[in-house]
Amino acid sequence: LLGTGLSSLVRPPYSFAIEAINASQGFTVAIDIPSGLDSNTGAILGVAVQADLTVTFGCPKLGLYLSSAIDNVGNIRVIDIGIPQDFVLDLNPHIHLLSQEMVRSLIPLRPPSSHKGTFGHAGIVGGSQGKTGAPAMAGLAALRIGTGLVTVATPQSVSPILESKLLEVMTEPMPESSQHLLGMEAFPALFAFAATKSALAFGPGMGISPETTEVLRRLLPQLKAPCVLDADALNGLAQHCQIFSSMKQPPILTPHPGEMARLLAASSAKRVNEDRIGVSRQFAMQHHVILVLKGARTIIAEPQGQVAICPTGNPGMASAGMGDVLTGIITGLLAQGLSSWDAARAGVYLHGLAGDLAAATIGEPGLIAGDVLTAIPHALTHTLSHS
User: Fold this and answer.
1) Beta strands of the chain (E only): which ranges?
2) Last residue of a domain, which of 28, 58, 89?
3) What SS3 state is found at 242?
4) Does residue 316 contact residue 359 with C-beta atoms inside 8 Å?
5) Are strands 299-301 and 307-309 parallel, antiparallel or unpaired?
6) How many domains are there within the chain?
7) What is the pLDDT of residues 214-234, one digit of tens each?
8) Which residues contact 188 (CB under 8 A, 6 or more apart)?
9) Is 267 helix (H, G, I), strand (E, B) or coil?
10) Residue 295, CB half-sphere, CA atoms under 13 Å: how many?
11) Range of the structural domain that residue 300 is part of
12) Domain identity same for 80 and 109
């Protein structure tokens, strides 16, 4: 009915036709884009077709992966209609869609002579009373993605709990504050811990206090290893974003829209979701970070303005602990030698694919982070062996 050039509200008789299509019980296929969607922003211009399948031509349309369009497009198939690939590459777009082929090229090889030291040592810093599951899942995810060694640094009072949860992941008890969090007493030990790790993650279950934030402010600019900042690390540093550009390597930040809103200080989760690409790209360029904005069709942005959109993942992953698994996956890929940009892109894609494979087996309702953890090796195998 209406194509990619639509920029105003849908009027009759087209709006009546779209409502009739949506009221039908038939399987609906949209050609190029569901009628009624803005092809650039994904906004619904009054009313839009709710498709089960969208067959789009040449290249994916940006709006298919944004905003409320996600609920209207169904499965997306991109059909080659003969547009020369050289022509597309000459356009040098700053936004691209992650693909299996690209991620396959990033997964580290495992030579026959490998040993556990070949694949790095990841350090996870976090945990507090009532929040030991987060660093445990992050540590296990780092192992599942292929890291050779993983150690969780956590307050000494909760270390026994983690030790009882984890068999393959090591723990390192840290001095703690009167609130049983990582305080200034832990700084020397954390500094020594960080110095021996190939990659680090800060935040899962860490808890928030002025003292913990001060530890991060002092430690982060001195890090040599690449790192991921998530959850409580982001919340604690929300008023100190200038710290990111002082770090030796651009950190990878993994906020959900609520955490992103706090980093922006004068925004809201709704505002973030209205312009996910613009918000991510501007923040990454301004603060010299790799920004992973989680949510339906996760956005990854880097300091030079490049943006990637992830097509994997499903609504079943809207449950507790999924972000901790993602943090562990990205940290594990960093530990194996991937650049921060490559680790973020591959990690997000594989995390979503693991969720898709798990959901294909047990369904989306009731999917939990542990199911995704178990599916990580299957996601690796699927990416490496399927075309």
Assistant:
1) 29-31, 53-57, 75-79, 95-97, 121-125, 149-155, 170-174, 199-202, 227-229, 252-253, 290-293, 299-301, 307-309
2) 89
3) helix
4) yes
5) antiparallel
6) 2
7) 999 999 999 999 999 999 999
8) none
9) coil
10) 24
11) 103-385
12) no
Co-location of 184 and 308 in the same domain: yes
pLDDT at residue 387, as a whole number? 59
Note whether 158 and 178 are within 8 A (CB): no
CA 382 – CA 333 distance, rounded (Å): 17
- Listing DSSP states for 82-100 in one string gives S--HHHHHHT--SEEE--H
Supply the pTM of this predicted model. 0.96
Structure-token pair, residue 7 = 């920029």
Q: Is residue 253 part of a domain?
A: yes
**Which CATH number fits the domain that encloses residue 201?**
3.40.1190.20
Q: Which residue has the tokens 């087996």?
A: 361
CATH of residue 74's domain is 3.40.50.10260
Q: Do 58 and 109 belong to one domain?
A: no
Residue with tokens 């944004």: 66
Which residues fall within 8 angstroms of residue 52, CB to CB, at 6 or more apart?
27, 28, 29, 74, 75
Q: Same domain for 226 and 180? A: yes
| Amino acid present at 3 | G
Query: Do 168 and 283 belong together in one domain?
Result: yes
pLDDT bracket for residue 58 (50, 70, 90): confident
Amino acid residing at 109: L
Residues 141 and 260 placed together within one structural domain of the fold: yes
